[in-house]
Amino acid sequence: MTYFPEALKWLIGGKDKMSVIDCRGLACPQPVMTAKKALDQLKGGELIVIVDNTFSSNNVERLAQSQGCSVEVESRGEDFYLRIRKGKTSDTGESPGIEKEVEKIVVYINSNLLGVGDEALGLILMRSFLKTLLDLQTKPLRLILINSGVRLATEGSEVLEALKKLSGEGVEILACGTCLDFYGLKEKLRVGEVSNMYDIAQSLLGADRLIRP
Amino acid sequence: MKCVLLFKSVHQVMKAEKVLKGKGFTVDLIPVPREISSDCGVAVELPWEERSGVSSLLGASGISVLETYKRNQQGRFEKES
Fold it and tell me: Least CB-packed of A35, A42, A110, A118 within 10 Å?
């Protein structure tokens, strides 16, 4: 069942100059997908997206920024209003400048274990891998945690300190929200940001090099 | 300052971590740095102050420490005899 908020229909109709997309009540990743559709249609100017939780707000904000838009977030009561401004110059939707200069290395971690085999050994190898990353000069742009990989960034993880240091050095850590939810760990995330498949798939496709340890 | 213990196999490392954690030591596993060579790529690290008695405690569980290093504030390793 696909549900489009009323506001999106107005937008497609193109009547309003300032379009409002109401994503309240929509479950992840609907808000970000709805916002993406609206942004793609927007030629320039502004768009307001309303969401009712922090995760959606962060996700929509990141999406807009990745498309080269400027975003202002305002919280009103329980809701978040995101004012997204699309510059007329960025017609492709690709983010300009900074990221292009350095090679985009993305590390894709889809398990809390490294390698296939003994579980205890896999845990040790993953700890070793992440700590070694800290010592290496070449740092990845982003670290994506999927499935049991999200455990690494949650309370009680042996590599929490290493991940915090990596994050402190500018490595972006994205933890799959669906996965955190599945394992009941959404409240226990201690480093990185809750992300969605949209962000994750975009990161994977946009990487110059993808490392899967 | 940290104390870094090397063992001859990863099994011994895992066993040592379990024994020491059980006794309340603040242990961590670290990848063995390039400047130290070892057959096993993982070492046990603990605060320098907690090192006394560790060797005999592990010995009692049938685990022998291969080498002991002192890791100073700058992260450099010095071998302990």
Answer: A118
The answer to whether position B20 is within a domain reads yes
Pairing of strands A172-176, B2-6: unpaired
- Structure ipTM over 0.90, yes or no: no
CATH code, B21? 3.30.70
- Any A CB within 8 A of B28 CB: yes
Indicate the pTM of the whole model.
Answer: 0.65
CB-based contact, A132 to chain B, within 8 Å = yes
Nearest CB partner across the interface for B30, out of A120, A121, A131: A131
Q: Chain A to chain B, count of Cβ pairs less than 8 Å apart?
A: 20
Cβ contact B40:B8 at 8 Å: yes
Task: Point out the residues of chain A with pLDDT beneath 70.
Answer: 1-17, 88-101
Question: Which pLDDT tens digit goes with each residue over A25-47?
Answer: 888 788 888 888 888 888 888 88
The DSSP bridge pattern shows strands A70-76 and A79-86 to be: antiparallel
